[in-house]
């Protein structure tokens, strides 16, 4: 239909909704789920549904046109087409890794990220790899030696666009300059500013961005001092960032880094237009992955890869789901590369330039992240920036983020599926060959993984009170909570009083009462006393104290409910089991 001046209208006037209409409809849903009361104003839905990142940035439930007022959108990704599917080939036995790399390339991988140990045989590692078709990004313990060996192996081959000799931004000035000159002579990339290194230690998105900018600026300074102008130096650099299963934050990070890098280059006297004129390599996060229930990592990496594609990454690496367990096998590598194909060929994610562009909430988050990262750059760049990011300031920023994340993971405000939520104590982890690929990585669930790695001294008796329908909710909660610490339970089943509980009890030192509040009020104290007399040394209760159940809470040793510090609770429980 058309409007009064012939303009196309996409909806009938009766279908136009206001912000107040949305708030009213959303509030009705939240009241049904008891997340809001009848007395709460409808506008409270924004507070209830807005999530906050570790950097204190708000991710709103709904974007509005007002979100874009006064925002800059420079640095939007320009890629429209398939991203470069980059497989990681980690250091190890050259012949074995060469076979894996060739299988990856035959399976649709388009470039290789090659980690190289000192003295590695590149001829064996790259045997059969068509270097004029498949770019190689080096990541070496000795960057200059690796670059020289790689070029010697390549000979006169016209190396594929995107090939990177891979000097790290943290390398000494002499090494950076030497590798940069080699890259310049061959028309290659020569330097990688690798933000995943600080991400792996626990850095937030903003800290990672700030570090990348500070390290990148240091590269420009070093190369300029070595006689390579800023414009030429900028053309040698690739930025590498981590993407997680928090998709909106990851999309915003990749969009923000182009805007930020364009500003760095502008201040360096380099004109780049609106794209930032830089190659961005996105890698699915290592710390977000879990050793336990590792198959969930497939879902995490799929969401992260989607975010990388939508955020405009030029190259994307999906780490195999089994990488935390050891050297990934053929199945893990196949799933990793097929994740790309699913997103590119079946879902067509790569076929739209900047699909998130113009989305109110994403643009707002991108702007907020860019501004916060620019502030972080100011903190990290030091007095003159000559030595790169300030290590002491970085350590302080990372430590603050780690402390906050650990607190949120411990209280399960930041759940980790298969680890802190819905763990499977009966799983058999797939065996993988040990390797050094996970060194330096601080897993988000490290404390819970450490618990799972050490078997508890015993099981907990789950004293389920009353019929199944009455105790199942709290029994399920307690079972899953204890399992997050590696603790299994023996369940009493349906019971009708203390005698039934004692009859099912089998001498466990720790018991956990699980039932409904009316049951607690009626015979909770008697149940706790009976189980103590039967041999229990520690009595826990699932739930929170109310006026009607205060009696039983007065005679127990510990309690657990939503919001409890799960890590502290599980530590106490495991100690009691000893």
From TrEMBL:
Belongs to the methylmalonyl-CoA mutase family. Its cofactor is adenosylcob(III)alamin. This is Methylmalonyl-CoA mutase. Pfam families: MM_CoA_mutase (PF01642). Signal peptide: none annotated. Residues 191-423 form the Methylmalonyl-CoA mutase alpha/beta chain catalytic domain. Gene3D superfamilies: Cobalamin-binding domain, Methylmalonyl-CoA mutase. Heterodimer of an alpha and a beta chain. Its EC number is 5.4.99.2. GO terms for cellular component: cytoplasm. PANTHER family: METHYLMALONYL-COA MUTASE, MITOCHONDRIAL, METHYLMALONYL-COA MUTASE, MITOCHONDRIAL-RELATED. InterPro entries: Cbl-dep_enz_cat (IPR016176), Cobalamin-bd_sf (IPR036724), MeMalonylCoA_mutase_a/b_cat (IPR006099). One of its GO terms (molecular function) is methylmalonyl-CoA mutase activity. Keywords: Cobalamin, Cobalt, Isomerase. GO terms for biological process: propionate metabolic process, methylmalonyl pathway.
